Amino acid sequence: MYDDLMTGQLDKAVAKQGAGDLTALLAGGDTWTIAASAEQN
Question: Would 40 disulfide with which of 6, 13, 21, 36, CB 3.0-4.6 Å?
């Protein structure tokens, strides 16, 4: 049942927004860096 609901949700999102482009996402400028805080060093 969960698989069917998840598949339906994904299908609706793709129909509404398109399939997307993973390469464009990874090459885009919307990134961030996670660094250890000074307290952990």
Answer: 36
